[in-house]
Amino acid sequence: MWFGKFLFAAYLMASVLVTITSAQNSPQDYVDAHNAVRAEVGVGPIAWNKTVAAYAQKYANSRVESCELEHSGGPYGENIAEGYGNLNGVDAVKMWASEKPFYSHDTNSCVDDECLHYTQVVWRKSVHLGCGRASRYDAVIKEDIPESLQALRLGNYKFAEGGTTDAAFEAKSCEEEFRRCKSPDMNRVVHDVSIVAASTVQTILSC
């Protein structure tokens, strides 16, 4: 049984007040991940803010259907990330922090705007953080697929009808559909493949 899993993280930081609180998606996980990056450059720690977290959760809930990376346009600084598989909140922070090489401390600027997520993480005046999370399922589950095809993760490819099970599959990347959190076509194959079930998993993280 295979299922596709989407994760989408939106991270919001505010210059306000705080307190807080499982996997690497807990409030403390987010706070610790941010503070580790901030400490590298001598920036003070950030703390959890329930008000900002509530805003982030509401936004995550609103994006779970489309899963498109659009900023909320709200009152807080914001980073957004999405991924397929086991991406969690800590992974998202690492993703944003990976832009550090594109930041020039001497000029306080980015190379081609490629470090804006990183600067949001280490922004000195950002002292509070809030995160939210939402999920949904969305995948096609199949059995009796030839071993050569089982190496292809469900949802990353679309198989056209025609030919035989040995050499018969025209695989097309469907990353565009996954980016939009749409389930791929039923991945129909002509011989010896039975569709067992159709369900979907999509997880949205907002911070």
Automatic annotation (TrEMBL):
Keyword presence, Signal: yes
Q: Where is the signal peptide?
A: 1-23
Specify whether rRNA-binding is a keyword of the entry. Answer: no
Alphabetized, the UniProt keywords read: Signal
Residue ranges of every copy of the SCP domain listed in the record: 25-159
The record ties this protein, via Pfam families, to: CAP
Q: Which SMART domains match?
A: SCP
> What domain of life is recorded for the organism?
Eukaryota
Q: What is this protein called?
A: SCP domain-containing protein
Q: Say which species the protein is native to.
A: Salix brachista
